[in-house]
Amino acid sequence: MHFKAGVFQIMIPALLCRILIRSCYMKRNMCTPMNHKSVILGLETSCDDTGCAIVDSCGNILGEALHSQLQVHLNNGGIIPPIARDLHKQHIERVVEEAVASANLGLGDVDAIATTVKPGMPLSLLVGMNHGKHLARTWGKPFIPIHHMEAHALTIRMVTQVEFPFLVLLISGGHCLLAVAQGVHQFLLLGQSLDDAPGEAFDKIARRMKLHNLPEFKGLSGGAAVQLAATRGDPLSFQFPFMLSSYRDCNFSMAGLKNKARQHIMRQEHEHGVEGDGIIPGVYDLCASVQWGITSHLCQRIQRAMEFISMRDMLPLDRRTLVVSGGVACNSFITGALGVVCEEYGYSLAVPPPKLCTDNGVMIAWNGVEKWRSGVGAVQDLDAVDIEPECPLGVDRREDVVSANIKCKWIKPRALLRMR
Ligand code: KG4
Ligand code: ZN
Predict the structure, then answer these.
(1) Of 99, 270, 277, 387, which one's alpha carbon is 20 to 30 angstroms from that of 396?
(2) Which Gene Ontology cellular-component terms appear in the entry (predicted)?
(3) Ligand 1 geometric centre to CA of 139 (Å)
């Protein structure tokens, strides 16, 4: 049976500022019975998820399969690249077979093979790229190389109508990027993390707090564990210094907060004689404060980006949208606060359903669709395609942000915390 992408997504309209849950059945891309639907297979292995999906140009997910390595890496205390590679190798064939079988199609029925080739962990990327090329050669299909972060950025367009240009915040385990998406291939970079990504900070702090030793947090990603623990704590109980507060840019920094949290945990362990698998008292307050520290930092950088966009007239006044995607966009506390910023600046907020925010094959297949129908994605010479573990997103406009020298009047914490 064919089904639509995730059932819901969140939109916060600019003026009404209500959270609307709109079914994605409300919109379909350019799909009338007259149109020929193209069908793209997407393959994702850039980090620790082996994902495959088959998506058509109307945004229907025809089939999908995902193998997550999360539990193995949680047990190891972090991702060990050769282990991630071996697990991808072990599962990729089965994942593709399952996705194709669930679509009730043969590989001969797809129009092209889209595969993540950048950015990501080299050993992991290689497994996907080699398998994608192998499928393309075996079945005589065009190959579409995919930029993982561009795919996160455009996933929303599969589930709801978001026209270019829009502002997009990508927050994941490996990246923190803020850009204006002008088209399928056109991005203007306004800010990025100078050190850790927010997901990385959540993961490392959660591990240092040993949250996984509490049964209810076992098996959750660091970010999801901190979000759950934070519901029982006070976000203002522990004050983290504002990060990059003297820099009038839209870059991000999480390392200071991560180190402060680590020092606090060590001090608490020492003071309370916490040893081995023990957990510090006040762990929920610390989780709530960490989550708030990251949230308020993201909100401030977005505020400056919105001011910059107004100054440079980069988005049409009547339909300004902030898209938030990547694994950390699963966090409703963060998206709730970003919704308040959107309300203040007259933006709609659009967030894909959680299942499409974390890594998956669907977003790669959808990005393949976007590229395929814009007629520029497929490559002829497979040998000319290689992985690019480090790869920027779009044209760097960060110096222009600095030169605009924008001082912001920050939205009050009370207002941002309203969504709690
Ligand atoms: O996009 P993603 O699946 O993989 C990367 O490309 O990195 O993001 C994974 C990250 C992890 O760091 C995880 O802790 C974080 O997303 N994450 C969350 C939540 N769920 C997943 N962070 C905060 N709150 C959540 N609910
Ligand atoms: Zn990702």
Answers:
(1) 387
(2) mitochondrion
(3) 34
- Asked if the structure places residue 84 within a domain, the reply is yes
CB 357 within 8 A of CB 327: yes
- C-alpha 315 – ligand 1 centre gap (Å): 28
Boundaries of domain holding 55:
39-159+358-374
Q: Average pLDDT for residues 24-49, to the nearest whole number?
A: 73
pLDDT above 60: residue 26: no
Percent of the chain with pLDDT over 70: 91
Task: Round to whole Å and give the CA distance between 346 and 393.
Answer: 26
Residue 387 included in any domain: no
Q: How far apart are CA 367 and CA 363, in angstroms?
A: 6
Contact by Cβ (8 Å): 285, 234 = yes
Both 227 and 318 in one domain: the answer is yes
Substitution candidate for ligand 1 out of 49, 257, 358, 364 with most atoms within 8 A of CB: 358
114 ligand 1 Cβ < 6 A = no
Domain annotation covers residue 178: yes
Residue 95 counted as domain residue = yes
Residue 118 β-bridge partners: 147
200/315 same-domain check? yes
Residues 201 and 327 placed together within one structural domain of the fold: yes
Given a cut of 70, whether residue 17 has pLDDT beyond it is no
